[in-house]
C-alpha cells in the first residue's frame, strides 16, 4: 500500500519561498497513471487544493494560486515537490500531499494522503 | 468557483444514534461529490465518492445521497470512532475544479 510523507521547513520568512517535498513509499511514483496533488488546510479554515502533477511533469494549478506555485516531480527519488513564492502569513497552513484516486486521468478526489506538515510563515 | 456550504457547523449526537450531514453546492455538480472524515491531528480519510459510492474499507453505516446541488451524508448508528469532522468536496474533471466545504463537526452529546 502506497504511503506518502511530507518534509520541509516548518518556518518560512515572509517573501521567501515555501518548499516542501512528498516522498512516496510502497510504490513507484512513475507506475504509469497517477496524479499527485498538494492540498493545504489553513488554521480554522477548510481544505484548499493547490495543484497536481503527473509523472510526465504535466501540471495543473488552482487558479487562485497559479501565479505563485510550482509543483515538480523527481522520479529517480520517488518524490514530488511544492514551491510557493513569495510566501505570506496567509500561507500558514498544514500542507498535505495526496494521490488522486484516478489512474490515467485525474478523478480529482483523493484516496491516499500524507500525514501533513505544518508550515508557519513568520519573521 | 463552486462554493460548498455544509450544515450544521456542529452536530451533537449520542452514540448509536443517526447523524445526518448536509452539503450544498452553489451550482450543480451532478454527482461529482466526495465525503471525507478527519480526526484531530490526522489527514482526511476518503469515505464516499460519486455522491454515494463507499470507498474501500468504509463501513456500511456510512451512506451518501444526493445530486445536483444538495447532498447528504448519513451515519446510521454512530460509533465512538465516528466522532470527527466531515468535509464534502466537489470535483470537475476538466478543467480541474475542486473545492471543499467548511466541514461539520460531529461531537458526542
Give the topology.
The complex is a heterodimer of chains A (123) and B (109).
Chain A: E1 3-7, E2 11-12, E3 18-25, E4 35-41, E5 47-54, E6 59-61, E7 69-74, E8 79-84, E9 93-100, E10 110-113, E11 117-121
Parallel strand pairs in A: 2-11
Antiparallel strand pairs in A: 1-3, 3-8, 4-5, 4-9, 5-6, 7-8, 9-10, 9-11
Chain B: E1 4-7, E2 10-13, E3 19-25, E4 33-38, E5 45-49, E6 53-54, E7 62-67, E8 70-75, E9 85-92, E10 97-100, E11 104-108
Parallel strand pairs in B: 2-11
Antiparallel strand pairs in B: 1-3, 3-8, 4-5, 4-9, 5-6, 7-8, 9-10, 9-11
Structural category of chain B is mainly beta
Number of strands of chain B: 11
Greatest chain-chain interface?
A-B, 23 and 25 residues
Low-confidence stretches of chain A: none
Number of helices of chain B: 0
Report the sheet with the most strands of chain B, covering strand number, pairing sense and barrel closure: 7 strands, mixed
List keywords for this structure.
heterodimer, A: 123 residues, mainly beta, 11 strands, B: 109 residues, seven-stranded mixed β-sheet, four-stranded antiparallel β-sheet, 52% strand
Amino acid at each position: 500500500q502506497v504511503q506518502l510523507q511530507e518534509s520541509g521547513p516548518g518556518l518560512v520568512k515572509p517573501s521567501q519561498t515555501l518548499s516542501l517535498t512528498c516522498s512516496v513509499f510502497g510504490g513507484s511514483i512513475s507506475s504509469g497513471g497517477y496524479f499527485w496533488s498538494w492540498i493545504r488546510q489553513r488554521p480554522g479554515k477548510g481544505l484548499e487544493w493547490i495543484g497536481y502533477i503527473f509523472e510526465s511533469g504535466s501540471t495543473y494549478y488552482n487558479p487562485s494560486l497559479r501565479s505563485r506555485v510550482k509543483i515538480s516531480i523527481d522520479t529517480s527519488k520517488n518524490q514530488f515537490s511544492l514551491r510557493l513564492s513569495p510566501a505570506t502569513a496567509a500561507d500558514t497552513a498544514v500542507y498535505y500531499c495526496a494521490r488522486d484516486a484516478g489512474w490515467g486521468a485525474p478523478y480529482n478526489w483523493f484516496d491516499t494522503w500524507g500525514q501533513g506538515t505544518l508550515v508557519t510563515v513568520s519573521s | 468557483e463552486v462554493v460548498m456550504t455544509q450544515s450544521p457547523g456542529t452536530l451533537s449526537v449520542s452514540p448509536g444514534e443517526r447523524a445526518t450531514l448536509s452539503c450544498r453546492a452553489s451550482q450543480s455538480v451532478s454527482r461529482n461529490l466526495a465525503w471525507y472524515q478527519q480526526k484531530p491531528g490526522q489527514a482526511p480519510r476518503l469515505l464516499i465518492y460519486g455522491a454515494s459510492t463507499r470507498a474501500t474499507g468504509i463501513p456500511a453505516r456510512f451512506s451518501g445521497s444526493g445530486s445536483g446541488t444538495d447532498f447528504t451524508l448519513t451515519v446510521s448508528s454512530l460509533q465512538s470512532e465516528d466522532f470527527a469532522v466531515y468535509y464534502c468536496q466537489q470535483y470537475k474533471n476538466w478543467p480541474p475544479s475542486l473545492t471543499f466545504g467548511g466541514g461539520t463537526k460531529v461531537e458526542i452529546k
